[in-house]
Amino acid sequence: QVQLQESGPGLVKPSQTLSLTCTVSGGSISSGSYYWSWIRQPAGKGLEWIGRIYTSGSTNYNPSLKSRVTISVDTSKNQFSLKLSSVTAADTAVYYCARDDYDSSGNWFDPWGQGTLVTVSS
Amino acid sequence: DIQMTQSPSSLSASVGDRVTITCRASQSISSYLNWYQQKPGKAPKLLIYAASSLQSGVPSRFSGSGSGTDFTLTISSLQPEDFATYYCQQSYSTPFITFGQGTRLEIK
């Protein structure tokens, strides 16, 4: 079965760029018709969808973050990545990657990575 | 943005109870509604998609219903492992997906 694993620095300084990678195992990131999404969750709060990528490279971003977000894919490594620029303390959160499945009934996230905590602090 | 509002925000119940959690959309979203369960320190887990379809491997005590703006997640007989936080998620406005604020289900 497909599994996802986030990796990247756990501490980022204010104004710098947060960079995370999600490695997909147990299947090819290019197989099937899936998007691949990033979602975040500040401590004790709810879930916020950040953006997604299709293996063709097509992307969609949350309008509230669009100016600072870049999502890319490397099919040769079975990975997709998130870059969030000009971070502030408000970007401190657990970041999840997830497979974005869809059909005529809508979109849903399954499976998810375990999540990685990113703290923005000097 | 489509706003998703869950009620209650928290709920206390006992093992064996029947529990219902409600999710209301700020506009009609047809049946484009999913439910997730999240335990502390873990990633969310998909329970229900398309308002009422049970994800493979999810116990049948979980069920979902509704369409339009009002949706419910029902747990027919609470088990100890069901105490968690539950989130609804709309995909009507895909790709601009939004989640509810969550409902924390606690042991009474």
SSE blueprint:
The complex is a heterodimer of chains A (122) and B (108).
Chain A: E1 3-7, E2 11-12, E3 18-25, E4 35-41, E5 48-54, E6 59-61, E7 69-74, E8 79-84, E9 93-103, E10 106-112, E11 116-120
Chain B: E1 4-7, E2 10-13, E3 19-25, E4 33-38, E5 45-49, E6 53-54, E7 62-67, E8 70-75, E9 85-90, E10 98-99, E11 103-107
Parallel strand pairs in B: 2-11
Antiparallel strand pairs in B: 1-3, 3-8, 4-5, 4-9, 5-6, 7-8, 9-10, 9-11
Quaternary organisation of the protein chains: heterodimer
The H-and-E topology of chain A, N to C, reads as: EEEEEEEEEEE
Structural class computed from helices and strand pairing of chain B: mainly beta
Which residues of chain A sit in consecutive blocks of at least 5 with pLDDT less than 50?
none
Structural class per helix/strand content of chain A? Answer: mainly beta
Main β-sheet of chain B, in a few words? 7 strands, mixed
The gross shape of chain A turns out to be globular
Helix content of chain A: under 10%
Net shape of chain B: globular
Describe what you observe in this structure.
The complex is a heterodimer of chains A (122) and B (108). With 122 residues, chain A is mainly beta. Chain A has no helices and eleven strands. Chain B is mainly β. In chain B, strands 2, 4, 5, 6, 9, 10 and 11 form a seven-stranded mixed beta sheet that branches. The termini of chain B are far apart. The interface between A and B is medium-sized, with 22 and 27 residues.
